[in-house]
Amino acid sequence: MRSIVFPVQCSWVPLAPPTRSKPQQVTIHDKKYCLFETGKGGYGIVNDSCFHRGASLSKTGTVRDGCMQCGYHAKKTRPRKIQHRHHLLWYDDGLDETGEIPDSWEFSPIADNRVFIYTDDFPGTNPLMMVENTLDWAHLATVHAFSFAEGEPRVVIDEKENTALYIYDTKIDGTTLIVENQFWEPWNTCLRFYLNETHLFSLHFGWIPVNGNHTQLVVRVTRTHLKWTGHIGDFVLKLVNSLPLEEDRVVVQSIGDTRTWDDDKLLPGVDDFVKLYRQAVRTNFPVTYSLYFRK
Question: What is the maximal distance between C-alpha atoms in the chain?
Fold first, then answer.
């Protein structure tokens, strides 16, 4: 795919693939919203907290006449518009809903941050295996030889939120790597780098299944104290990120189409989050599971 960096700032934010069947809470710049189908293939977004009593609309609300109706006092909230492009739903968190979503997006929710978003394509790559590769706590130090992750991470699992933190000690004094994994569609992994508890930059990967043998990816790079300004810095970051992603693609393709999850012997305790991920896929996405993972 093309990756063109535009010199203007853009407020379009990628939310999710258009596969939602029920209201879903999403977070944009630390604020919570409710994303839902309005009917006839349309999507909308409203503030997740109802203005009446603060009830969560994504948990208690229902869709009525294309609006989100609060389950607490039946008040309907008219949604803001969502656009569908590049297999994703997009929301303009500015006020201009008429602008076109470009092939690459650059915006700055915080003045000192520079955010660069681009897409990548992985044909011939099973999406569920691609996701599971990122959930493997040992894959950073094992697959990516240049990674400074060292030893086994501390693993913190939150089953209620379907998330896990892998906290790595590193080979560089004072530096910490935190990997946050989430398993819902699109499956997300975020790598956050810290120096003496100061956040330097983050790499956020959103995996999008196209079919059983094709994966797409949205990468969001956020820099705070580590700044490479201008388009040259964006190009360098994209090039650096493409190297480990290509290694991941080769690993997944080497597994083969005949292998199944049931062939694996997971280690007790170590692979607890992988077990939760597989259970979630089988339970919540049975059609997706049979389509994207060949038995």
Answer: 57
Distance CA 205, CA 135 (A): 12
Residue 4 lies in a domain: no
d(CA 188, CA 180): 8
Helices (H), the chain: 57-60, 127-135, 139-143, 230-255, 272-284, 286-292
pLDDT at 5 over 70: no
Q: In angstroms, rounded to a whole number, what is the distance separating the alpha carbons of residues 178 and 162?
A: 16
Treating both helix axes as pointing N-terminal to C-terminal, what angle do 127-135 and 230-255 enclose, rounded to 10 degrees? 110
In order of 5, 26, 115, 158, 189, the CA distances from 164 in angstroms are 32, 18, 24, 6, 10
Q: Are residues 198 and 73 in the same domain?
A: no
Tokens 């038995």: give the residue: 295
Q: Which two tokens stand for residue 153?
A: 């991470």
Name the least confident of 117-121, 123-127, 139-143.
Answer: 117-121
In angstroms, the CA 145 to CA 136 distance is: 15
In Å, how far are 16, 35, 101, 264, 268 from 26, measured between CA atoms?
9, 7, 20, 33, 32
In the chain, the number of structural domains is 2
- Provide the pLDDT for residue 292: 67
Q: Quick count: other Cβ atoms within 10 Å of Cβ 60? A: 14
pLDDT for the residue numbered 63: 92
Last residue of a domain, one of 65, 92, 119: 92
**More confident position, 248 or 256:** 248
Domain containing residue 69 = 12-92
Average pLDDT, the chain: 77
DSSP character at residue 49: B
Whether cis (ω within 30° of 0) applies to the bond prior to 14 is no
The residue with tokens 């518009």 is 81
Residue among 271, 288, 238 at smallest CA distance from 132: 271
Residues 101 and 83 sit within 8 Å (Cβ to Cβ): yes
